[in-house]
Amino acid sequence: MLSANQAEQAQNYSDVVVAFNGEPASLQSLFWKQPVEQLDAGRTLFFEGDPAKHLFELVEGVLRIFKIMADGRRVITGFLHPGDLVGVSLRNHYLYSAEAVTPARLRRFSRKAFEATVSSSPELRPQLFARLCDEMAAAQDQMVLLSCKNAEERLCSFLLQQLRRKREQDRSSSVVDLPMTRLDIADYLGLTIETVSRTMTKLANKGIVSPAGRHSICVVKVSMLAHLAGEGDECHDGNPSVVSLDNARRRH
Questions:
Q1: Alpha-carbon gap, residue 43 to 37, rounded angstroms
Q2: What is the DSSP letter of 41?
Q3: What is the pTM (predicted TM-score) of this model?
């Protein structure tokens, strides 16, 4: 959780409506004048079921969002990156828990102020609707991933997804950082950590990936990765793509 000082600071800003010289241009602009808060790796931003009093913009770092099943199993439903909004909900409570994978920096905004501002803005309403639609589409993609794909296809889809995200930011870059552990990847893909490790080794033996340091692998054949992901030859092989991996093992 956030420190006591940060929580107190956040409370002081919870009812603040940001003043603009004109109509806010984007949903992110609502957060610009809010203070930046720090969240250490492994700390929880909020828990599923907590009152949804605030929304957050992720400024730096990576978060994992997850749900805990009745039998105690953790199911990671996504990873959030800088620019993502956290805690957008049409209900009065959060629908998932959010936890920092890496040290993170965030800005928070009162949900009451957020809803009032969006409701009064014809420019922001469609942006919020589009974000909610994107979340629904991502949830549908995850359902297909878990219900229709085998272990190899799931892992290849995940690596390909991370590669595409990086290339959206920098087309010339071939480096993709994966700060999450292999346990995180396993919980996201509905696999065991042993299966993730075994499948990674299988991809290496096929020459699709190769070791590139202690915490990285090099994607040698991008088009083959797309093919094994069940997405066809959507990518063209070019410069090798480096994918960093944390080799942490399952915690007991």
A1: 13
A2: T
A3: 0.79
3-state secondary structure of 131: helix
Q: How many CB atoms lie within 10 A of CB 179?
A: 17
**Straight-line distance from the first to the last Cα atom of the chain, in angstroms, rounded to the nearest whole number:** 22
The torsion defined by the Cα of 38, 44, 45 and 49, in degrees rounded to 10, comes to: -170
* 8 A C-beta contact, residue 143 and residue 78: no
Name the E strands within the chain.
36-39, 44-46, 54-60, 63-68, 74-80, 85-86, 97-100, 104-110, 175-176, 209-211, 216-219, 241-244
Question: CA 210, CA 243: separation in Å to the nearest integer?
Answer: 10
Q: How would you write the pLDDT of the chain (252 residues) with one tens digit per residue?
A: 555 444 444 444 343 444 344 555 787 788 888 999 999 999 999 999 999 999 999 999 999 999 999 999 999 999 999 989 998 877 889 999 999 999 999 999 989 888 888 887 778 777 777 777 777 777 777 877 787 899 999 999 998 888 888 778 777 666 677 889 999 999 999 999 999 999 999 999 999 887 766 666 777 888 999 999 988 654 555 555 566 665 444 443
Give a three-class secondary structure readout of 170-204.
Answer: CCCCCEECCCCEHHHHHHHHCCCHHHHHHHHHHHH
